[in-house]
Amino acid sequence: LMQSMNYANTTGEIAEEEMSDGDDDIAAAANSWNEGADNIDDAEEFFDWEKIVHEAENGEDDSSSFDMEGVEDVPTDDELLDYVSDDDSVFDVLDEGIEMKAKGYKPELPPPNELSEDSRALLFWRHEGEGKSFSDWKIKVEAETTDDDDDCRETNVTIYNVHRLTLAMGPKKSDYFEALLQSDSYSENSDCMSTVKLSKEVAKQFPGFLDYLYAQPLESKFVINFENWKSMKHLANYFLVPRLTEAVAEFIEKDMEDYNLEHMENYISEFHRDISDDMSRRILPKAVLICAELLQSIEVDSPLLMSIPPAMFRSIIRRVQIDEDDNQMALHTCSLIASYLEHNVEDRLVFSIYFCDYVLFSLFGDLHKSEETTIELALTWFRLMTKKGWTFEYRDEPCFWGIEMVKEALADILRDYLRSKTPSLEMMERIV
């Protein structure tokens, strides 16, 4: 198609020249136009665009429409989706303006809120055993280690004296305990005790879970912190406490809005594993914006960078706003992408589709090509693409536009540098 269109443009230019020169042979010019148009018609007929679009929309295999002889290891759409394992729409966020933060940015924050004395006085479960007990229910928590060896597995048992009214009523009630306590069919009702098995990590935070249920409604969220949010989320799901699930989500959102970059890896690692979860779809888009704003503070070898899935990372870098004169920011962003690709991406089709367009048009064009740091970066990219085997193969259309155009942009950087400076012998050898 490209050859046909280029030929059409060429013949059209010839026709214009003949007509502008006053050539009497207008018929020849018209024939040139017609010949170019015929080529385009032939190309459109060959590719049958309506058929291709129809097959794509209906998920049909259209590989038979193209001659891919000589192309090896080109993944199918399903294989590509399996590799990426992300639903891109999860990371789609409104293009609201973001404010890029300086490296090391950390706002001054007030100390975390704590339960008031009135709320602490309501933690009746903590006062059981101090004299007369008013408890009418017990929760037996069996904490199990995660050791796969049954002989080495240990179980620690803790019994909590609690109150049915607090567990099963009120705005923070547990639907689990409400159903349990309203039915006589459960064996637990005979001895007024329920037994739950939790991991050692989650069981450690069970007292905080009880504090949440007992504290005043407006203050109960103060119980949640970075050390226990994951366990609280698990307990909210286990005991069916929707109010606690919402409180955990609000805590995470506020923690991210406070630009706690050191916590981002924990959140991303937890939520990108199941992007169908409602909380994941709530947290991940906000994480995209925060990571974009704090991009200058993300190091090329940071665990955070390596924990981000490809679709999310692409969404982050596409929202980065770089000043035309900020060469350092452009360099840092290109370096981050190169480091990310080196450790997280192997498939050249993923590289081409996900990253090349942004790198080519929004980053390479902003680099100051006369600086040696830019040349170092260009050489790094060349080495990366060679190491990964990201090359263009004959008739490999899906990868052509990304990979070949990025290579050409890198070559332009080197050419401009050589035109503007006389490099050292060592640098010249590296470039060659």
UniProtKB/TrEMBL annotation:
InterPro entries tied to this protein: BTB/POZ_dom, SKP1/BTB/POZ_sf
Pfam families listed in its UniProt record: BTB
Listed Acidic residues bias regions: 14-24
Domain BTB, chain residue ranges per copy: 135-222
Residue spans of biased composition, Polar residues class: 1-12
Chain intervals for the UniProt region annotation (Disordered): 1-24
Domain of life of the source: Eukaryota
Protein name as annotated: BTB domain-containing protein
